[in-house]
Input
Amino acid sequence: MSHPNPANTPAAKAAAHENLKPSNFLRQIIESDLEKGTYASRHWAGRPGDAAHHAKGERDPAKIRTRFPPEPNGYLHVGHAKSICINFGLARDYGGVCHLRFDDTNPEKEDTEYVNSIVDAVKWLGFDWNGSPTAAPYQASDYFDFMYRAAEYLIEAGHAYVDEQTPEQMRANRGDFGKPGVDSPFRERTPQENLRIFREMRDGQHEDGAMVLRAKIDMASPNINMRDPAIYRIRRATHHNTGDKWCIYPMYTFAHPIEDALEQITHSICTLEFEDQRPFYDWLMERLIEGGLLAAPAPKQYEFARLNLTYVITSKRKLAQLVYDHKVNGWDDPRMPTIVGLRRRGYTPASLQMFADRIGVTKSDSWIDYSTLEGCLREDLETKAHRGMAVLNPVKLILTNWDEAFGAGHLEPCTQPALPHANSGSNMPSAPDTPAQAATVSIADSAPDRHFTIGKEVWIEREDFEEVPPKGYKRLTPGTKVRLKGGYIVECTGCAKDAAGTVTEVHATVFPDTKSGTPGSSSIKTSGVITWVGVADGRQAEVRMYDRLFLDAQPDAGGKDFIESLNPNSLKVVTAMVEPSLANALPDQKFQFERIGYFVADRVDHVAGSKPVFNLAVGLKDSWGK
Ligand code: ATP
Ligand code: MG
Output
């Protein structure tokens, strides 16, 4: 019995894959915290809660806790995918847990449609919240009671007051970068008075916008966010979780640190625009820990650069505009950078994880070239996508001596591998990161051969014949010999044309003993190889050829109207001929159409066997910017 090489076990491969991951500033911070034991003393009582609650729990088995906190007000996009990969990836790599948390403290914009799509997106990317012993995902709105209590505590401790200035007065008195703010005339109210009015706010005795609760910090602070930020506002709106229970809602800057603390988050990772909020985050944590409401040590906020991708918009609001103005066919239009759109376009979880790893985590903004994303998909599909032949712009090639050579009506069976490199070690799929990817790999490993037939007539690409060839042309032109891939060698003899001079059919003769895989296959020298589909068994398919959605590399930079740079040719639909294995594809199955590119059977419209519909995922070569 042979012993398996331990270096080849899935676990060892996964570990090797781990070690290849480049370090970044977040990894360094976490490694240093683990070494120092910064969070070793934390307790976790099984679900989020305040200091008293967690004190009753065990030592937290999770070495770190991170969170991905989307606002459920739209579909997630490729930028969120980066954030998901960072947060869930760090938790996975360091023995931690990542919480999916719906940041649903804003009552107006949220919808359960979005909640469900976010859950699907995170799971599809290969992550889940198992490992957390509770029924996560969490909802920030479940913490409204605690947030209210924290607000009352701040009032009682003299750290917050109700301000009745108008929004204009408040804005004017906030000052600006060069100018300190001016104290509100309501700033010196007593805690008793503040508490009374705050309770009136809660009880619906004041109009929307009549007053706000503000933290009392420092109106002269050089950081404008520390100049008594608003922490609660009056807003009569029905909330998707809490209904009409509340008519006051916490502001994001107040709610977010509290959510982190209740969930015992250690490393709260967000994008750079929150950098100026960090002093308030820390201030609030200190106040609520010293008041005994929250458990120490406090979570800490770290900022990284958000993803900017050329030719792509990553703002939920602007993506919504594309959908509602019918510039695209819905959130999952394959041209959309939403996760549902990318998925329908043929992107795989592995390709998006590879992308997140490759672009890394930095502290300064930059633009990532769209071709980087495409390169990751190409790399992932190269070893996994089954091969198939398709002809996108078909013209008939007639093998004029076929009947003499093989007998009238003869169809010769041909066989080609679905994965030409499947048995060569160097091209084996890399170690899977997730069960979803492992499933893809095992399908790829056991790929069956493809079967199709060749007869007197085959479809070829119109561009594969030139009556008067340009210099260096290697395909069909009168007098040249080419191989029909997986079939026979043929010699072009001419063509037929209609009255307008358009080629209607191409003519060639076949060399009967040159079938691929037979000893005679290399007996004749050819100038090239072309792909084709048999007329007898080829099937019609709708193929959607997608191009970039915008013509401008930075469609919305500097306040530009991104609608103006929409690419009018971002979708071209063609009727192609495809080989039988492609017509029988399962929805969502990815293929390499040989010589053309990677395609996916559309998840929505493709029906195996009866209505093949394919989307172009990515071309074989990088054609961007050329
Ligand atoms: P949008 O502007 O598209 O609405 P958002 O930041 O408001 O995005 P949230 O739902 O608040 O959307 O985002 C959830 C998480 O995803 C946040 O932690 C946020 O920092 C992160 N995120 C959002 N966009 C990007 C991006 N382009 N790159 C990296 N992370 C992002
Ligand atoms: Mg947001």
Remarks:
- Residues 102 and 139 are 5 Å apart (CA to CA).
- The pocket of adenosine-5'-triphosphate (ligand 1) is lined by residues 69-71, 79-80, 82-83, 270-271, 306-307, 314-316 (CB under 6 Å).
- The chain has four domains: 19-134+253-307, 144-252, 316-383+539-619, 396-411+455-530.
- The two ends are 55 Å apart (CA to CA).
